[in-house]
Amino acid sequence: MMLSFIQNMGGGFLLIILLFSLAYFILWVYCLIDVIKSNFKDQNMKLIWVVILLFAHVFGPLAYLILGKNSKAGL
After folding, report:
1. In a domain, 36, yes or no
2. Which of 10, 24, 46, 52 gives a 20 to 30 Å CA spacing to 3?
């Protein structure tokens, strides 16, 4: 049943899913590299953001982009 669903999706829909997945993966890698390279006001924040990015795949990068920039040192 699952194979027939995948076969009936068509190439365009599968291509869109692939492009969104690739864009989200690039966003996730960017956030992870930014966390590792950054200095935070509290040194535990780096570990907390890495754990959030690793275990909250859907909301982790979005939360970091919204909330994480405020906790960096030097702002």
Report:
1. yes
2. 24
Task: Report residue 11's pLDDT band, with 50, 70 and 90 as the boundaries.
Answer: low
In a domain, 65, yes or no: yes
Mean per-residue pLDDT, 9-31: 85
Rounded CA-CA distance 75/37 in Å is: 15
Give the residue numbers spanning the domain of 62.
Answer: 23-75
Q: Is residue 8 included in any domain, yes or no?
A: no
Q: What is the pTM of this model?
A: 0.75
Percent of the chain as helix, strand, coil, to the nearest 5: 80, 5, 20
Residue 69, C-beta contacts closer than 8 angstroms, at least 6 positions apart? 75
